[in-house]
């Protein structure tokens, strides 16, 4: 399905005001795509707000928000309790980089608004929003920032260079520095953002990683198991809760190893749930493997979550499926 920029423009034009919201635990793609959409909405002439509830964010996001103020790039950031006074029947909510209500910044807003646009690049979830005025889930594209770049280009919307920098950082992170889910559209978006003045030096600051999380990922990679010479399996420590994006990064990294056709990372994502992230170069269909564990995704990018099971039992279930391929 092609992105309908004109429909999005029309829905924004008809709104009394616009609220933009992404997922909890804001990352650079969520923030970058939100800021790109913010400037689009402002260009159309609408009072626009970013709904952000979190007081603390990852380092790149925190730096971005501070820099916006330092550079006098006035972005109207509010909490829902402040926005209640301006929400009316014609308020438009734009949800970016997520389509599952309960993992948005504040799901209570869905009971207050009548019109919703959803733009995301994650795999469609059964618990996702289905009643939006416009729903666009581009799960084959690298990032939501890449999708928003398409909008900016088609509608000829100017963005400041620092916003371009944040959006480019979002693309770089979500593609693991252009090593996964990267198409000509990704490079085209990166080129466009560079033309808009994205700053190379500032990009490097935004991409700096949390040392503790980096070490945890490297510990998994250092102890991977190779199955049948072509499958890599990484196991998280049972006493550690990992970020979902970190176990995905481990699988992305393992896929870069010689002879590896498919990579799987298994780790706890909360006290009662393990997550399995699966990646493939395309010769192995990891979607079919994850479906056997009640998950899903695509041939090259899939995942599952399993409740009330140990990491070891999860690993054994996975190995049994691989053995029978």
* Tally of DSSP helical segments: 12
Shape: globular
Largest β-sheet summary: 6 strands, parallel
Mean pLDDT reading:
95
CATH topology of the largest domain: inorganic pyrophosphatase (n-terminal core)
Question: How would you describe this structure in keywords?
Answer:
alpha/beta; inorganic pyrophosphatase (n-terminal core); Diaminopimelate Epimerase, Chain A, domain 1; six-stranded mixed sheet; 40% helix
Structure summary:
This protein is 40% helix and 19% strand. With 325 residues, the protein is an alpha/beta fold.
Give a written overview of the molecule.
The protein has helices spanning 5-14, 28-44, 59-70, 80-83, 144-155, 161-174, 184-195, 200-206, 211-222, 244-254, 286-291, 311-323, and strands spanning 17-21, 48-51, 77-78, 91-96, 115-120, 134-137, 225-227, 231-235, 262-270, 273-280, 296-297, 301-307. The protein is an alpha/beta fold and 325 residues long. It has a six-stranded parallel β-sheet with strand order 3-2-1-4-5-6. A six-stranded mixed β-sheet has the order 7-8-9-10-12-11, sandwiched between helices. It starts with a helix and ends with a helix.
